[in-house]
């Protein structure tokens, strides 16, 4: 095994040689390895961005669009009939339903038209339905992934294969910070949920920065102890001592940076300073005791439980108020292969009131107009059932070919449906929206040309939207 001190000295010598030879050509070459935003192209769109911030509500596990948003009134006539081959078209299915009969399971839940434009909404979301005029329901989302992990990875990073920066990391890298005392990108997974079946893990790579500088990665908030790991000082260390320690450490790091020009040293310095400021800003952020009781009550009974979806929605509003650029909430428990009606009722109770409260709260403070809110899962569910299908008890398999989600605020037209599916909610019939189209639209609303926000890595100008064609969905933009 090599001596690590010797390796460090050798590395430093090689870097010094590059920096001090060839009339500076070594430094020039090294600089090309440290890409900066907009170094090669102007990615900002002309005009004022419609959105400044994003709240991304990720319903992990994939909610059923058939039971929530995609109203198909005639399906009840086809109960337990086989899905026509002309509809299924031999498309890929999971191992759980491969080779089995595909029997139609119509939703047992009632739908009604809400808002001025008569947007169809399920009875499972009574409070969100009351805000139909603010929602743009997209029914034609589609993706390539048929299993959960690649599906979540594609939504969060733009690619099914791990190893790409997350949405929030791209925004932090491209647009920078709006608040010097809090991270650009915060992640809050729910600590508990009602649907306790088939719950998949969440991985740090879903909010990681990958090949972007690590200062752009998401900061996860914890549900036990300090909101952010290692936020508190150890016993015997006060703020003054911590300040002196950081000043001394900063001097050493800056000296090291001048010698070897490693950009990660810059990140270390910046993050240590951010951590110091967060020791006062984060406790203030997470303390909801001064919130008006009426506002807190609006989020529902679970808002006082640390780590609840309701609490996280209230914290998301407080973060947006303090100009955190990208806030991502994960709520698991939506993978309903069996007992879907019971599990859906619980999940919708978890999210309906807090989500509606979040939108109302943002709107009342004038924040919704420049805050884009997106709510979606990694894919949808099949119209055919799983298990012993009855009118009131059924499950649904994974379905990436078409599914529903919604957007609000931040330049989005409210009170509308976009995209259509066939009579079985199985195929997109009009205006398909791929995951990369959603990413392109989000960036557009934030004033960014998705094809120009790039980072050179492994011989390719990497983008959130990848190498395949992506389009901005201009029809839903106000």
What's a concise summary of this model?
This protein has 478 residues and is of the alpha/beta class.
Q: Strands, helices and their partners?
A:
Layout (H helix, E strand, L loop, with lengths): L3 H17 L4 H7 L21 E7 L5 H4 L16 H4 L22 E4 L4 E4 L3 H4 L5 E8 L5 H10 L9 H9 L9 E5 L29 E2 L18 H22 L2 H24 L6 H6 L10 H13 L4 E6 L8 H25 L6 E6 L3 E7 L8 E5 L3 E6 L7 E3 L1 E2 L6 E3 L2 E2 H11 L9 E3 L2 E3 L16
Parallel strand pairs: 1-7, 1-8, 4-12, 4-15, 5-6, 5-7
Antiparallel strand pairs: 2-3, 4-11, 8-11, 9-10, 13-14, 16-17
Helix pairs in contact: 1-2, 8-9, 11-12
Describe the structure.
By secondary structure, the chain is α/β, with parallel strands linked by helices. It has a single domain, classed as Alkaline Phosphatase, subunit A, CATH 3.40.720. The chain has helices at residues 4-20, 25-31, 65-68, 85-88, 126-129, 148-157, 167-175, 239-260, 263-286, 293-298, 309-321, 340-364, 435-445, and strands at 53-59, 111-114, 119-122, 135-142, 185-189, 219-220, 326-331, 371-376, 380-386, 395-399, 403-408, 416-418, 420-421, 428-430, 433-434, 455-457, 460-462. The strands form 5 sheets. Strands 1, 4, 5, 6, 7, 8, 11, 12 and 15 form a 9-stranded mixed beta sheet that branches. The protein has a two-stranded antiparallel sheet with strand order 2-3. Helix 1 (4-20) crosses helix 2 (25-31), helix 8 runs antiparallel to helix 9 (263-286) and helix 11 (309-321) runs parallel beside helix 12. The chain is globular and about 75 Å long. The N and C termini lie far apart (62 Å). Mean pLDDT is 89; it is low at 1-12 and 14-36.
């Amino acid at each position: 095994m090599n001596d690590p001190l010797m390796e460090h000295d050798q590395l430093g010598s090689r870097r010094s040689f590059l920096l001090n030879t060839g009339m500076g050509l070594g430094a020039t070459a090294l600089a090309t390895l440290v890409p900066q935003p907009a170094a090669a192209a102007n990615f900002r769109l002309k005009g004022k961005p419609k959105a400044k911030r994003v709240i991304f509500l990720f319903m992990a596990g994939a909610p059923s669009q058939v039971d929530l948003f995609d109203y198909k009134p005639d399906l009840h006539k086809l109960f337990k009939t086989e899905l026509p081959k002309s509809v299924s078209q031999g498309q890929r299915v999971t191992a759980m339903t491969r080779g089995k009969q595909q029997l139609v399971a119509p939703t047992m839940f009632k739908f009604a038209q809400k808002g001025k434009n008569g947007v169809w909404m399920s009875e499972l979301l009574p409070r969100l339905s009351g805000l139909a005029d603010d929602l743009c329901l997209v029914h034609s989302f589609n993706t390539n992934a048929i299993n959960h992990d690649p599906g979540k990875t594609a939504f969060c990073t733009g690619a099914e294969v791990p190893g790409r920066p997350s949405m929030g990391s791209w925004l932090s890298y491209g647009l920078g910070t709006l608040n010097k005392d809090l991270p650009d990108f915060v992640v809050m997974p729910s600590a508990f949920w009602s649907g306790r079946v088939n719950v998949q893990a969440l991985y740090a790579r879903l909010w990681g920065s990958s090949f972007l500088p690590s200062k752009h990665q998401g900061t996860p908030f914890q549900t036990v102890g300090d909101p952010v790991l290692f936020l508190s000082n150890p016993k015997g260390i006060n703020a003054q001592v911590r300040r002196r320690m950081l000043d001394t450490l900063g001097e050493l790091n800056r000296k090291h940076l001048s010698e070897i020009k490693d950009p990660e040293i810059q990140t270390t310095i910046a993050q240590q300073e951010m951590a110091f400021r967060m020791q006062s800003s984060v406790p203030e952020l997470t303390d909801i005791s001064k919130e008006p009781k009426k506002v807190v009550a609006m989020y529902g009974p679970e808002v006082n439980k640390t780590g609840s979806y309701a609490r996280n929605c209230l914290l998301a509003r407080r973060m947006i108020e303090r100009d955190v650029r990208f806030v991502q909430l994960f709520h698991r428990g939506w993978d309903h292969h069996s007992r879907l009606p019971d599990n859906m009722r619980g999940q919708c109770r978890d999210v309906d009131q807090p989500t509606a409260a979040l939108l109302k709260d943002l709107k009342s403070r004038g924040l919704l107009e420049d805050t884009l809110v997106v709510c979606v899962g990694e894919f949808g569910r099949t119209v055919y059932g799983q298990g012993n299908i009855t009118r009131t008890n059924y499950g649904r398999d994974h379905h990436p070919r078409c599914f529903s989600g919604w957007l609000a605020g931040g330049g989005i037209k409210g009170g509308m449906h976009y995209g259509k599916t066939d009579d079985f909610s199985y195929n997109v019939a009009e205006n398909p929206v791929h995951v990369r189209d959603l990413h392109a639209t989000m960036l557009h609303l934030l004033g960014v040309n998705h094809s120009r926000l790039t980072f050179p890595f492994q011989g390719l100008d990497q983008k959130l939207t990848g190498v395949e064609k992506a389009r901005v969905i201009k029809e839903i933009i106000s």
